[in-house]
């Protein structure tokens, strides 16, 4: 199972949301004004979310 971590001190949440837009597995979603992790076990480790995050706020661990 993949461990998805978001550093909310770095995350711009509603002002960005790029990670939620590109996640094909819909693991990351924008709820309210922040990103939430939904069903991390479905993550395919494609790392697209980490690539698009301008602040390096997302970390994936297998």
UniProtKB/TrEMBL annotation:
GO terms for molecular function: 4 iron, 4 sulfur cluster binding; metal ion binding; oxidoreductase activity. PROSITE patterns: 4FE4S_FER_1, 4FE4S_FER_2. InterPro entries: 4Fe4S_Fe-S-bd, 4Fe4S_Fe_S_CS, Fe-S_Ferredoxin. It comes from the Archaea. Coiled coil: none annotated. Residues 2-33, 34-62 form the 4Fe-4S ferredoxin-type domain. Keywords: 4Fe-4S, Iron, Iron-sulfur, Metal-binding. Gene3D superfamilies: 3.30.70.20. This is Ferredoxin. The lineage of its organism: Archaea, Methanobacteriati, Methanobacteriota, Methanomada group, Methanobacteria.
């Amino acid at each position: 199972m993949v461990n998805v971590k978001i550093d909310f001190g770095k995350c711009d949440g509603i002002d960005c949301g790029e990670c939620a837009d590109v996640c094909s597995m819909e693991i990351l979603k924008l709820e309210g004004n922040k990103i939430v992790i939904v069903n991390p076990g479905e993550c395919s480790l494609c790392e697209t979310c980490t690539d698009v995050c301008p602040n390096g706020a997302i970390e994936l661990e297998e």
